[in-house]
Amino acid sequence: DPVPPLQVIRPEPCGVCGSRIRFGKTAIKCCQCQLLLHTKCREQCPSLCTPRPHHHTWPREGVLADFAPSTPPLVPTLVVQCVTEVETRGLTETGLYRVPGAEQLVREWKRKLLRAGGALPALSSVTDIHVVCGVLKDFLRGLKEPLVTFSLHPAFLRAADIPDDAASDTALRHVVSKLPPANRDTLAFLMLHLLRVSHSPDCKMDVLNLSRVFGPTLVGHSSANPTPLAIMEDTPRQCKVVARLLSLPPSFWRGFVGTEQENLVPM
């Protein structure tokens, strides 16, 4: 819903290309989501409005809830957009999430997305899909505490260690339900995504491969400064947690993000 062009008084980043709209230039602002963009970027503007974030830009670092929208499902726009992009054009790529993207581009795009806040520039201009995967992993790794949180970390490890599969699943469901709402919704959204990746024959990324990649990223350690011994002992257990989480039925995860969230991501 564009309004007539307006003049920019305070330089702000364009919601599509990410570069600044300078003082005195004309720009377009959406009435619904307040997205601000260069008049020349109007063609590239995503047609669907993203809800406006609480604040204009996100913090450089924070816990997951700092990046989440105010209405459920509480999944940060950055996560939704990276996942949507990967599922749109990445499910035929071998080694998705295992093959690294160019480090400099990953850093550049992560910075660009964090600077933009809730109205993100389109990721379709990122040629290499591995860079988009890198941005998502880097965002999750850069949180002040892992997705499973420091306080619930030991409970996740204990639940995954239970030898009986059914008992382990029950314990894990219980611990997942105790997560802060934004962490729980985002974990559910990511699990559904990783299950789709694991089902793509072209990616050659089964549950075991994905759990090796995502164990350190999603589960991490029980404190911000783990000892070398803790790092060594945690690594195999982190993978075990992700593998067990991926063995839970998709219907369990859908219970948190609802069916509307599914529509954001092409099946």
TrEMBL record:
Q: What keywords is this UniProt entry annotated with? A: Metal-binding, Zinc
Is the keyword Transport assigned to this protein? no
Q: Which GO terms describe its molecular function?
A: GTPase activator activity; metal ion binding
Q: Which Gene Ontology cellular component terms are annotated?
A: centralspindlin complex; cleavage furrow; midbody; nucleus; spindle midzone
> What are the recorded Gene Ontology BP terms?
mitotic cytokinesis; mitotic spindle midzone assembly; Rho protein signal transduction
Keyword Metal-binding appears in the UniProt entry:
yes
Which residues belong to any copy of the Rho-GAP domain?
Answer: 62-253
Q: Superkingdom, according to UniProt? A: Eukaryota
Q: Which PROSITE patterns match?
A: RHOGAP, ZF_DAG_PE_2
What name does this protein carry? Answer: RGAP1 protein
